[in-house]
Amino acid sequence: MRFSVQIRSSWSKARAGLLETGHGPILTPEFMPVGTQATVKAMTPADLDRIGTQIILANTFHLYLRPGHPVIKKLGGLHRFMNWPRPILTDSGGYQIFSLAKLMALNEQGITFRSPIDGSEHFLSPEKAVEIQTALGSDIMMVLDECLAYPASEEQVKKSIGLTSIWAKRCRQAWREHETEQALFGIIQGGTFPNQRRRSTESLLEIGFDGYAIGGLSVGESKEEMALAIETCEPLLPQDRPRYLMGVGRPEDLIKGVNLGMDLFDCVMPTRHARNGSLFTSIGPINIKNACWIEAEEPLDPACECYTCRNFSKAYLSHLYRANEILSSQLNTLHNLHFYLDLMSKIRQAIACDSFEEFSKKFLQKYNSVSIDNEIY
What we know:
Number of domains: 2
Strand content: 15-25%
Mean pLDDT: 95
Strand order of the largest sheet: 4-15-14-13-12-11-7-6-5
CATH topology of the largest domain: TIM Barrel
CATH superfamily of the largest domain: Queuine tRNA-ribosyltransferase-like
């Protein structure tokens, strides 16, 4: 993997870059649709291709439990398994263990947990996390880290960082032993405590990674706390490595993250919200199941060029949702992901023209211009 910053904003830390992988280049900043089970819900690979998807994220935890990484490796790796030719990032599975599984024991060796699928017992160590991701064949793999619930005390955070640093070092060693060309990213933790964020960042820099992710955010903290965590880490990070802000987020959060120097983002929000009828538009999010759209003949967003907006009315989308039709999830998801990826494309163009400040102000002004009391956040 190679990364280079191509253009920098003259007024902020926003930057446009090129991330080169074995499965193709990625122009940054970029948003990664989440493909939990080796599929972005309600989307085919052809759909993702048509809306300009450059990279997707797949979930190590779920793929380890089902169908299992040996199966995927035997069938040619994750790219071939899901017929996706472009880059894939896989997480380590740590977050899902803490959020979905029954935690049995956690120590320096790893995590013992029970599967939420069948209750079977499993053990995940840093070495195992790398082994699984190596078998999957993703372009970018993540280290195993401990994900604390929010809020956490500084003492809890301090202890967690120590464990995460030990695991990160072991992941790095295991990655070297596999002699893989896959990139390995470290994950910065530290909660909402700036001194702990610095400590975690410095610890990872000593180990050395291909890229650095800021984790443990978008878990209930305020926007001010999120911004402070990013602002604390960013000056310490090397300029020639990609920065990944994990689990973020809303359109306004993407703009803020880019403004603060971040390169990669992911979140289930556009796909999950789509299935629940919450759709992003240039004047803000709307809930398509509300009664006011039953007879609305206009497109969802006249400013959008996606297949959904060019071919269907709000009334039809409202009908599909109310009728619980599969097409509802498909059309809604296609639109929401197109909205996110189009936003990132416009952000890259604005950085290239050194007009990111002006673009951000205009976008947010329009996005917040109409108060529509029908979001389902």
